[in-house]
Queue: 4 jobs
Job 1
Amino acid sequence: MKINTLILAIFLCLPLKNVAQKPTKKIHWKAPVALGVASLLLYNSSAKDAQRTLYRDNFSSFSTKLDNVLQYTPTILNVGLSAFGMKTKNTRADRLGMFVIGSGMYVIATQGLKYAINETRPNGSEHSYPSGHTATAFFGATLLAKEYGENYPWIAVSGYTLAGTTAILRLANNQHWASDVLMGAGIGIASAEMASFLYPKIKTKIFEAKSAWNFEPQIAPNYYVARLNYSF
């Protein structure tokens, strides 16, 4: 049981290594891959039995809905802090673009796996693996860290702390297995990394496509026409 708890704690802290990291044009895969591997290590009956014992002995009377709100707090911070004059790396439009692309990625990944695997939750309900709440929280925390981490490391630490707390509360509420939250965290971080990498390329392609079109109106006393050209 102690070993399983230690694995969970260590790997949930892995994203903190990216705090204050300068933006690069590559995808940082180490944290999501490590979280995925840790999830697979704890995806077994002995780990589940240990978690059942831990829950029964310490959290059987515990219940909170805080995790339902807490999952969104890193994203709320990302939106709200710029309104208070915090220096951001990207414009509001670019932050929205990365959020939309990354959200689509982690939602498709988590929901697809939930229904493909159909793991039973600790409380007996369906669709446990992976944790969507944890994916949402770590996705938001990673975008938050990328946006503010270099100039305000404490903001990045706060975001990952909120995400980690969300994951722990999912376990304490008996909603998920440890393997679920680890995989959810990995998916959330990977989605943020991929969105940050892909969005500038998509944006460039869109603007290139727009610049290829040329709209030229021609006005004369007796007529009005417009010419539309596309350059290859």
Note: The two ends are 63 Å apart (CA to CA).
Job 2
Amino acid sequence: MALRCFRLRRSAFAALLASVLAVPLSAAAANPARYSDSGPEPQLARIFASIEDNKLEAAYDETESLLNAYPNFRLANLIKGDLLLARTRPLTAFGEGGGVAAKDKVADLRDEALARLRAYKTKPPTNYVPRYLMQLQPDEKYAIVVDTQKARLYLYQNDNGTPRFVADYYVTHGKLGTDKLKEGDQRTPIGVYHVTASLPRQKLADIYGSGAFPLNYPNEWDKRMGRNGHGIWLHGTPSNTFSRPPKASDGCVVLANEDLDAISKDFQIGLTPVIISNSIEWLSLDDWQAERKSLLGMIDSWRRDWESMDVNAYGSHYSAKFQSDGQNLAQWIEHKRKVNAGKTWIKVATDNISMFRNPGKDEYVVVTFEQDYKSNNLSNVMKKRQYWLKEDGHWKIVYEGAG
């Protein structure tokens, strides 16, 4: 009778999912995987599909298997408690099986269940890529894109310049959401960043789990916008839990320790891009190639106008808002005019170009390349970084400096 009542009430599990999921979980569980199915999501989908079909013993067995794989998985422990309680009486709320001590945590675990299952159900098409990965340098082996709304991190490999999906993982971000503005606001920044260091477990408090990888927040654009703060990291989870709720950090992006360990072996300090978005915009490979070609063309036009020694043509590529090394646009152009006065020829080569488009409301592209400059009286090679901003339909350089 308890199982019959459980089904009639649909339990908190089924009611929880019916209000937010577009298709039955049984369908999601049956569909062949298009992306990596590492982690607990496939088992969670099967558990909830069994509950929805009133196959509670099958759900219980699957939950036990899940806990064998992830003993500190609090969500799985809560589900197990509910399934045990459902053997004795009908349930009216998600998390009843957790007891009084767990009631203040139920909402967090409910959010985690929804985030994991939504991401599992709504995977992007395999022939689409994040718009932001416009071009990887040949030596940039991997790139990371984070979708905070889905609480998901996507890992891409550089396949001769084309980003190819490798795996995706559940993540946690800031307690108060995204769009970080200032120190201590408990928000995660949105933008284009890079891994700057590796901090091993031995040098960290337990809350950071198996390691931490600082990012270069605030970047040059953040500084221009007056954003401040520091200590935005990718890091792991404390030893007493497998994962944390979707919004639980002070601004960092947090992964399960085993997930962090899996991707961190591919990190290149100072090189691996980490793009954090509110919601990923996906492009077909054809559209991605077209946009990439257009952006590469604008960089080459800038390079050729520099070689032409036509300062006006060269200056047309720079924004009226340009600032770099304490110089505004007028000062920058005047400096170039004086330099060119002593030149008879200039040759500029741009190699190992990377281009990453900002996922936020500010429409800019971060361009990094190796610049090989030669003239009649000077030769040098340097790594350069530029920020190109979309102004009135045209891309203009708003910042330029050493990369």
Note: The longest strand covers residues 379-391.
Job 3
Amino acid sequence: MKLRNLFYILLMSLFALQSFAVSDKDMEEAKVIAAKLYLRWANNGSGYLDDVSASSMADLESKLKAQEKENLKAFKSVSIPADYASWDKQRFVQFWGTTFFTSPALNADGKRAKDRVKAKVSAMNVSAPSSAPKAEETKPDEAKGEEKKTEEAATPATSNDEGGITIPEPQEVMHQEEAISDSLAILQADEQSLALADRPEKAKSHTWIYVIILIVLVILVVWLMVYAANMMKKQGKDGPVSDGNEKKYKKEISALEAENDKLRSEISRLKSQIDEAKAETVRLKAAQADGRKQWKEEKKATVATSAVAETPVKRPKEESKPQPKVINEIYLGRANPKGLFVRGDRRPNPAHTVFRLDTKDGIVGTFRFAGTPEAFELASSNPLQYLAGGCVAENFEDAGNASKIITEAPGTAILENGCWKVLRKSKIRFE
């Protein structure tokens, strides 16, 4: 009976610790995240935002260029509900990850940032509300009422006249076993949630839940050990008991010891998973830093290549020189923000080729995704960099999970000053 009451109190404490609400600071932080990602997707030339960090909307707006300030007007026109202080974490994530981006005033390309906004807002730690009732104020009454109901439902214990030992009724033992079963069920449910924790942000946000579960399990194990020790001590103090009661106690002690062993194993396993989650978080942060460094280096190289491609080469006019033969098939690299393909080759170049252009006169042609394994691997490594300049697609984020890229409609390009320029982007899809 006491075990069940103790478990109820611990369970209510766990639920009390999970109550959160949205503060003004949380709302401002989520708004900055959503605005930055929206502006990044709304304009292909807003790559500088990747290096911008801001603590508030005013701070972010002061660091924007003219085009982003213009795009921000549509973002700021979307109204935000005034009752967000009463929201829980789920409603908070739902608003910024879905509801906000349904506004027709927003840029269509900018709306594609909603999935990344949802992921980043889900990883936020929402502040505890100052007006939330304290868990300690509700615990005593609830525990007292539960204890009263349990005492009214329980039957009195019977006495053994031979040894003077008070033997608990089967109903009380059943309550204890039910409490242990409930705790194991909660542990299994948390084990399933641990298996779904892939991202480092999730592992970080759930670490405190694992700690609480560990505390509950440790308290339960300690209580069971004390209960078993008291039963054994009472047996030695009160003298021998009947054979039936002795077998009954031994069976209960054996069951309790088995439960102790199971709980210890679960505690060890959960500790190992917490350590693995922390290690994975550190590893992914390091990989993210390396990826950002590599991206910056590629960006510098791209700017240098674009400068070379955009500089026309002046050549002296030659009289009576035969016209060069038109090349009908050209393999192009990615298109820069100005719509110029930064590279052209007569044959596929595994390190640069992304598109294949077909032309009859060498002036105007149609282009499509090259379709080679090397081009697919190059485009999948950074879809925005290699595809966005010459393609349109439903969601470039799907490229990481795609097995191939299909051209649904070819694009059109024209030769200007020795460089091929995009007139109309091609349409692709990821499968």
Note: The first strand starts at residue 158 and ends at 159.
Job 4
Amino acid sequence: MLKISQNVSIPDDEIELSAIRAQGAGGQNVNKVSSAVHLRFDINASSLPDFYKHRLLSLRDRRISKEGVIIIKAQRFRTQEKNREDALERLRELIKGVAIVQKARRPTRATRGSQKRRLDSKVQRGKTKALRGRVSEE
């Protein structure tokens, strides 16, 4: 059972974990040991609430396929057990991140005083630059 929040959890039978051989350096050992973990989680077939499903499917994340399957490959650690925990933790964080609703941004306006100060400083800079012209000799 993967606990997402107090109310939401995912049963183990909905998460498919498979051991695969890790990529990268590791010498001869990398060819023998399947220490990396491939996690697959089908969003549509899961028991998640519809709110979570809809938000997950609307995410623009490369880990979510067009069919609505989350695919996470964990190969950060040397042991399969740590990679398994890492994959589950990353799935938990992905689903938790979807639950957070961003507060709507309210655009603010500049005060009348700040607008006046800005325009006055522009006029002042213009006068300073106008004085930098060539000096006419008479």
Note: The first helix runs from residue 29 to 32.
